[in-house]
């Protein structure tokens, strides 16, 4: 049965976002592609001609604080005492500022990173702060640097009173930062995603070998005065199959090292480029094939609503009996109670864990105390080299943000003028939803490489900036299957990391230029589809949509025309064009108490094939979907979650 389910990620670009960002001091646009700068202006500020070049313009600054910046030649106080952090600040250095930026480091950071920060601003290192303590102090700082232990909650961001310009996460995961609140308060969030890759991979291999040879247990035994050689007989790695679940940066490094140990390596990552896996000598397989054939399973997947507790009772029941599990990714991807049951039953022979659903885990945790479990306290990035690398990477990212430079590791708010957001808002929603639909239509294991976006518009290239729309299509495609947060700042960087080549084409149409876009088409090349009807005459998975009365609509699936609003969930069916089909499918959904909120049928020719698009309020029961598939005239169908 062809069905796909992805979590419903809310977009940053809703009305609340736009309204809040009309007040944000961090909304800048640049039509000439030079470095954009954060400029903080009081709502009553004015900027005199001698402060900036002739080309600096202010768009309704009292209401939006939105600037169109092409260059800033000096940084002088305005009439209200405000300071402009200008484009040339990097050359002048912080010494010319009236005051240096203030930076709070709330968890231990490598000395090399601290030295970089101290050259730029005033740094306070205050560790082990409670939420109340952090809230009481945060308003004094321009930047906050945290690791995984400090919770940057909405309360903290509110307490900053608009003064906090950037939050830096020294590491990858940002579960402890309220991204939506940071975005609403105009606070940029950056992370350090690259410096600890090797350390995490090495720790994964360390746990793999320690588990296989019972290193931790035998060490504890001999220190207890015992000599139990026969009890701790291990297993060899040579010739065994390792399944790498998630073939990103860390996963691919683990695979490379495992092959050096003589292991046969397979990987599951539905969206990893097949050519990259082949180059590493790794075979990409389905999820079920990976877990059912592997002797060792190493987890390197992000924690998303899709992957939360993906290793559960059902998953363990499909695994090869006696398999061994390693997790240096995120604790939440494993149902820990289910893992204990699998260990007790012998389905899982051993587990080696560096991460947990709650950290630190409870002292009486059955999983931690299990005799066949090897544990470490989240040490994946804990090498001297990685700590220093992360410290320097996050220090440079935070300084760049304070200078106003765009960061490839920014994980939240795009920086575009409020008036552009207002005009493009419905198209932004359309773009993300088309991306989200497209990724669900691609068959797992195909490997997405090439994406083409076609805009039909009456406007010229100078009157339509599509970067935001391209970013949202990228967001829709990547976020459901990744821990990356995609926005205007990092969209191209993220796509490149994922091996995606995104091209754009404009097709001129004779419509009113008052509407920025007539339609958006997303084409994915060289992939197999879960729903063959989406394949165009060129062989691409192709869908098209437009905005009608402010609401995104799906208007074309492959060669079939349809017209459905992109809200809730959609069932697509291809069937023989004959009487009674709408009633047949509608009756099945009614039988299972599924409410239909819209339906559209499109066909190429009379009495041929037709596409039926059905909007439903909730995900139908699997039995309902199965029954739809059993209707004789239904040739294929797919369930899509928006």
From TrEMBL:
InterPro entries: ACT-like_dom_sf, ACT_dom, Ado_hCys_hydrolase_NAD-bd, ASB_dom_sf, D-isomer_2_OHA_DH_cat_dom, D-isomer_DH_CS, D-isomer_DH_CS1, D-isomer_DH_NAD-bd. Its EC number is 1.1.1.95. Keywords: Amino-acid biosynthesis, Chloroplast, NAD, Oxidoreductase, Plastid, Serine biosynthesis, Transit peptide. Residues 570-642 form the ACT domain. Residues 73-83 have a biased composition (Low complexity). GO terms for biological process: L-serine biosynthetic process. The keyword Iron does not apply. It is an enzyme of class 1 (oxidoreductase). It is found in: Plastid, Chloroplast. One of its GO terms (molecular function) is NAD binding. Residues 73-99 are annotated as: Disordered. SMART domains: AdoHcyase_NAD (SM00997). GO terms for cellular component: chloroplast stroma. Its main location: plastid. Pathway: Amino-acid biosynthesis; L-serine biosynthesis; L-serine from 3-phospho-D-glycerate: step 1/3. Pfam families: 2-Hacid_dh (PF00389), 2-Hacid_dh_C (PF02826), ACT (PF01842), PGDH_inter (PF19304). It catalyses: (2R)-3-phosphoglycerate + NAD(+) = 3-phosphooxypyruvate + NADH + H(+). Gene3D superfamilies: 3.30.70.260, D-3-phosphoglycerate dehydrogenase, domain 3 (3.30.1330.90), NAD(P)-binding Rossmann-like Domain (3.40.50.720). Transmembrane segments: none annotated. NCBIfam families: PGDH (TIGR01327). Belongs to the D-isomer specific 2-hydroxyacid dehydrogenase family. This is D-3-phosphoglycerate dehydrogenase. The lineage of its organism: Eukaryota, Viridiplantae, Streptophyta, Embryophyta, Tracheophyta.
